[in-house]
Amino acid sequence: MNAYIYAENYLRDELLLADVPEELAEELQPGCQVLFSPASNRRKNVIAYILRLEKSRPAGLMADGTLVDVLNSAHPVLTTVTMKLALWIAEYYISRPIEAINALLPAPLKTTVQDFVELCEFQLQSGTEKIVTTTLRKKILRALQESNKPTVRQLERKLGKHNLYRTLTVMERGGLVQLKKKFPQSGPKTRTAYRLRPNLSDEVTEPLKRAPRQAEAVEKMRQSPHASLFAQDNGIARQTLESLVKKGIAEKIRVEIQSSFSTGFTEPKKIIEQLSSAQHHVLKELSDAFHSGSFTPFLLHGVTGSGKTIVYIELLKQVLESGRNAIVLVPEISLTPQTASRFRQHFGDDIQILHSAMSNQEKYDAWQNLRNGKARIALGARSTIFAPLCNVGAIIVDEEHDAAYKQDRTPRYHGRDTAVMRAKLEQAICVLGSATPSFESYSNAEKGKYRLLRLPDRVDNAAMPAMKLVPMLENRRITPSLSEVLYLQIKERLKRDEQVILLQNRRGFAGSVLCMECGHITMCKHCNVPMVYHASSRQQRCHYCGHAVAFSGNCPKCSSANLLYKSSGTERIAEELRELFPEEKILRMDVDTTNTKGSHAIILNAFHKKQARILLGTQMVAKGLDFPDVSLVGVLMADIGLNIPDFRSGERLFSLLMQVAGRAGRAAIPGEVYLQAYNTDNPLFAHLLRGSYEAFYQEEMVSRKELHYPPFTRMVVIEFTSPDETAAEKAASACVDHLRSYLKRDSCHILGPAPAGISRMKGRFRYQVLLKLQSRPLAADYLKHLQYSLMNTWKKHHLSMIIDVDPQSLM
Ligand SMILES: Nc1ncnc2c1ncn2[C@@H]1O[C@H](COP(=O)(O)OP(=O)(O)OP(=O)(O)O)[C@@H](O)[C@H]1O
Ligand SMILES: [Zn+2]
To answer: Any idea where the Helicase ATP-binding domain is (predicted)?
Structure first.
């Protein structure tokens, strides 16, 4: 038998061919995680993954090594679909297949150090002779009886034998031992439970007739599938159970509990009596497509507060009912605890929430839960798209426009696009939902690639919030950050005991220069993106094309020296608010106040319980929050963000403002939004005030087309970094030369090399080459080849070349 595999730590990119020893052959399937012993270094085993198995080997082909063992109890860690998905990622995002596979699997699955062997408590006595047939198996059994729960490595050392996994797997299947991963930091969590003592006679329980609660508890324990009860569950008080222990009827035991993630945010379950007719219509379309059983991608464009979540939930109920499984992606769990908790309320243990703050043990348990079908919905951030579920029938991408879906290290996959691809492989439906769809998705819907569904109105007759623009140049200011108009509005809401959300857009301060007098921002005349200030050379530069102009320290339009190019934090604004409203508690939510576990939920809980009426924060306050008493949203510098040197800055800002505005007036109290801004005549605001996503989209698309930006082209950024600036620049130039001769001029624009927005990072100089491709004539193989050869040429200068396909940020 021969196996084609992708192996860890292997510089070569292509498939390796491995010999499979006979005794191993019957254990293996495609997708299995194995140990591979390379011919070049027999003593070193590396983890590898089987792509396919073949009986015979092509004539004249040498094997690259031998498979020596099989991990994860010989259960494939990659399904047919996730393996295909990995290969698609490697091809599309131009990375190595093993890198893609590694991105697919959670870290705890890729280490063997924590593999333990345990004797089973209840061994199937009769089968023992059939399984313990060899001296090795006898030795293992004896060793396990002597030392409890050794790691596989310890066992191997003790017996002086390598590669015991296969044998242990066979013994595990025979019910003799168990292979487990256990991570030290957080052992399995346990809870006290109560169970009936074994062999109770009726005489003991008879007198309980006079203690109805205790009798009820005994009955419930008898009926419980685990024959035990936790205190408080099923309405049984701890006291009742303790009395039973005293009487000798029940006993206390420790029970392992599933570690399930909680965001710490709780709200009472809201019963939604009936879907609106618009919600019904959308649900019907989705459900029909789902039942048709073929791949259908949807874009659900539903305004803020239109009730998208409950539509997802109703759809997933049908998916589970029909025996299929589902994946739900959210941009970031800690930022959207409300969404996660609503899904949890509906699906309980059927849903597995995945979160980056989980411990290794929790991650591993969660993965196994999904792998063996204990949980049937996976909900989490972008990597949840790789959940090891089989038979996925629906994939939902909530807030599909969010940039957090793009992975910022290799492989640089986009969670949303990967979701569409997985749905295709699964023959599932895929729902991309947003109040402000990404232009990529909206244009795909226009082209008919996605089916467009709309929820144009808020539920329960709630009105969309009224938007007002506050031109900062004409309005009296009461503090450096706050206009009198907005101040009066806040005061008014507090008087009515309503709530206020204030946003300071911090992502906007990305190195560009804004004039505080006239609002001017210097743009590149070639690329129409803001220029970035470089202090070292006192220049402003376009980091798309490299065009540079001198920076005088004064506004080129009105000569004012009152320029803003340093960050202006929420902390200072909070101080101003405290002076204006000394009686009020001000909640601040930004990176500084949310850097500890659970702190985010604490802030939101406080706001939810109305322990505070003003919530001030960065982008974080714009996402998904659903609080009925918020009647005012204020944005302190609404035009900050226009100056981000990125062709998507308009799209991003529009969506941010629309989203934050959408937090106001979601229930009975109508909402109002005040946007303080300098550049009030930017057309973006006119569209925003009319609440017209569509008009804004159409207008932006005109300039996208003219300047050959996505979605009209596909963009690829190639970044060169090195501690030696010349090396980075020269390698980038060499790359441009290569590409120019390789690519046809009319199919592609090549820009640069230019210094990156942040031209030096961690002691490395950064240069970028930007490709705008008409279609995608760029073969992954060609680019990978170029990558190896350039990195090799500049090896002494520690050059690295990073390829980013469909980049989301060009910093
Ligand atoms: N049919 C309905 N009847 C009454 N209330 C509803 C109905 N559908 C949804 N809601 C409620 O309306 C509110 C808004 O719904 P939801 O949070 O799902 O909006 P959304 O579309 O996700 O908005 P956003 O894009 O702003 O996050 C929620 O409080 C939800 O419980
Ligand atoms: Zn330029």
So the answer is: 289-455
Q: How do residues 140-192 score in pLDDT, each as one tens digit?
A: 888 888 877 888 888 888 888 888 888 888 888 888 888 888 877 655 566 78
**277-460 placed in CATH 2.60.40.790:** no
Q: Tell how far CA 381 is from the center of its chain.
A: 2
Q: Give the integer Cα–Cα distance in Å for 751 and 773.
A: 11
pLDDT exceeds 90 at position 454: yes
- Which atom belonging to ligand 1 lies closest to the Cα atom of 279? 1
Nearest to 418 by CA among 300, 535, 297, 519: 297
Ligand 1 site: residues with CB under 6 angstroms?
A: 270, 272, 274-276, 279, 302, 304-310, 435, 459-460, 624, 626, 662, 666
Our mutation pick for probing the ligand 1 site, out of 269, 273, 300, 308, counting the most ligand atoms within 8 A of Cβ, is 308
Phi, psi (degrees; rounded to nearest 5) at 803: -105, 125
CATH H-level superfamily of 477-509+568-705: P-loop containing nucleotide triphosphate hydrolases (3.40.50.300)
| Range from 206-215, 352-361, 373-382, 529-538 that averages highest in pLDDT | 373-382
Q: How far apart are CA 378 and CA 257, in angstroms?
A: 19
Q: Name which of 525, 526, 524 is nearest 540 in CA terms.
A: 524
Strand partners, 179: 117
Atom of ligand 1 nearest to the CA of 309: 18
CA distances from 379 to 316, 328, 384 (A): 12, 5, 7
175 Ramachandran zone, left/alpha/beta (phi>0; psi -120 to 50): left
Helix (H, G, I), strand (E, B), or coil: what is residue 90? helix
CA of 662, nearest ligand number: 1
My answer on whether omega of the bond before 711 falls inside 30° of 0, hence cis, is yes
Query: What is the ipTM for the molecules in this complex?
Result: 0.96
Rounded CA separation 269/244 (Å): 33
Three-class DSSP category at 458 = coil
Task: Say if CB 609 and CB 344 are below 8 A apart.
Answer: no
Which residues are CB-neighbours of 292 under 8 A, at least 6 positions away?
Answer: none
pLDDT band (50, 70, 90) for residue 50: very high
DSSP state of 187: P
Sign of the four-CA dihedral 459, 454, 312, 293: positive
- Cβ pair 636, 482 in contact under 8 A: yes
Domain ranges, ordered by start, for the chain: 115-181, 190-256, 277-460, 477-509+568-705, 511-566, 714-805
Write the DSSP string, 332-382: -GGG-HHHHHHHHHHHGGGEEE--TTS-HHHHHHHHHHHHTTS--EEEESG
The rounded distance, in Å, linking the Cα atoms of 304 and 667 is 12
For 562, phi then psi, to 5°, come to -80, 75
Backbone dihedral angles phi then psi of residue 468, each to the nearest 5 degrees: -135, 145
Confidence category of residue 546, pLDDT binned at 50, 70, 90: confident
The DSSP bridge pattern shows strands 714-722 and 672-677 to be unpaired
Answer whether CATH 3.20.20.70 is correct for domain 714-805. Answer: no
**Which ligand does the CA of 523 lie closest to?**
2
Strand 764-773 to 748-761 pairing: antiparallel
Q: How far is the CA of 4 from the centre of ligand 2 (A)?
A: 47
Report the nearest atom of ligand 1 relative to the CA of 306.
21
CA dihedral 476→478→479→485, nearest 10 degrees, is -70
Between CA 220 and CA 229, with CA 225 as vertex, the angle to 5 degrees is 50
pTM over cut 0.80: yes
Q: Do domains 477-509+568-705 and 714-805 have the same CATH topology?
A: no
CB atoms within 10 A of CB 216: 15
